[in-house]
Amino acid sequence: MSAPTTNIPVAIPAGGSSRAPGSQPGATGQGGQGARTIAGSIPGARGIAGRLLHGTPGRMRLFGLLGVIAAVLLGAVSANALLASQAAVERAANNTAQVVRAQSIHVDLLRADAVATNAFLVGGLESPDSRARYEGAMARVASGIAKAAAAQPADGNALGVLSERVQTYAALVEQARSNNRLGLPVGAQYLTQASAGLRSDAIPIVEQVVKANEERSQKEFDRSNSSLQLLVGVVSLAGLVAIAVWLARRTHRYLNVSLTSAIGLLLVALFVTATTITGIGRATRDVAQGDFQSAVTLANVTTAANDARANESLTLIKRGSGAANETSWKTDRTTVETDLGRLSDTTLDPLWSDYVASHEKVRSLDNGGRWDEAVKLSTSTATGGAAKTFGDFDVAVTRARDDAGKTTVSSLNGLGGSAPLIAVAVALAALAASWLITRGIGQRIEEYR
């Protein structure tokens, strides 16, 4: 017989639900009312944003935030543009200095070859003056290569190869000199080989280094005017003006001193930045088209002139088989006279004309079968001698080239020096404008309430 069943009443809380005996309190089911109550007790981020941006005061807060962002953006862009212009000028100065170094190497290589070939015509032991000028040019080449490699790592590999080619050239010249002292004809072959190797193996490397650094310099000249970046600042300033107009129409208060002061401060900062950058760009362009271009042109004149002088000597050394060298001399003459025509300074023209006249006399003597007299005139340091007239021109053109190169580098180094200070001032002005914008918008919010 089964036991009687006992009915036990269970109390159910009002508004609640029953739970089985032994179940844990609060475990009313996942996602139930307890979870909703906890979630509802924490205000959502969307609700906060909605209350802050609700109505006209909310829009004022939003526009105030946008105004601060615009002011900071204008300051950041202006400061960056100033620093970018200064950095471009510094890089242009460094690359220009490298151009001058490479051109000096080019000139001294051809000058050394011109001296060596002309001294070779004398026969036997060359004069102490010729020897000193040759060794001086080669010493400058060696130090110039070392300085150029240290100044511009990008040229390091090319300059390393150049150093090897220069050593090969110097070794061949020494062999030619030794044989010439002994009166051996093979010396002429060594010298011819040295000059040909210099022009085919070494000179192209120098020309490539010069060209690469000229291109780098030109790019930095173009980058020195970074005023295009300021368009962002102009847009930011226009946005602030639009906010000021909206605020005036909304509040019927047409002058907000703080906001107007912020706009005026940013306008001045933008104007000073634009003026500074434009000035740097204009000055850099003037240097690029003035002293820098003169330095490049004068370097071309110097190298072509020394190449011509070497070809004059090689024509005589080959005694009747130097027609190709005389053709090269004429090409060099055209280069020199064309480049001299590009210069505003005409003091070099008569010096070059004197040398041309001496060379034509040398060729006239050689073509007339008077080789010994042609050699004597070519190596003569007396008035009217080719060595004298060319030496006068070479000294003058080298001095002009060095002056133009130094002036270019010093002028570039003097540009953009105030840019960092102006950048700091512009950044501080942007921060001050941000505070004024916040203050001006805050006043209108308080008044609106």
Automatic annotation (TrEMBL):
<keyword id="KW-1133">Transmembrane helix</keyword>
<feature type="transmembrane region" description="Helical">
    <location>
        <begin position="415"/>
        <end position="437"/>
    </location>
</feature>
<keyword id="KW-0812">Transmembrane</keyword>
<feature type="region of interest" description="Disordered">
    <location>
        <begin position="1"/>
        <end position="36"/>
    </location>
</feature>
<keyword id="KW-0472">Membrane</keyword>
<feature type="transmembrane region" description="Helical">
    <location>
        <begin position="228"/>
        <end position="248"/>
    </location>
</feature>
<protein>
    <recommendedName>
        <fullName>Chemotaxis methyl-accepting receptor HlyB-like 4HB MCP domain-containing protein</fullName>
    </recommendedName>
</protein>
<feature type="transmembrane region" description="Helical">
    <location>
        <begin position="254"/>
        <end position="277"/>
    </location>
</feature>
<feature type="transmembrane region" description="Helical">
    <location>
        <begin position="62"/>
        <end position="83"/>
    </location>
</feature>
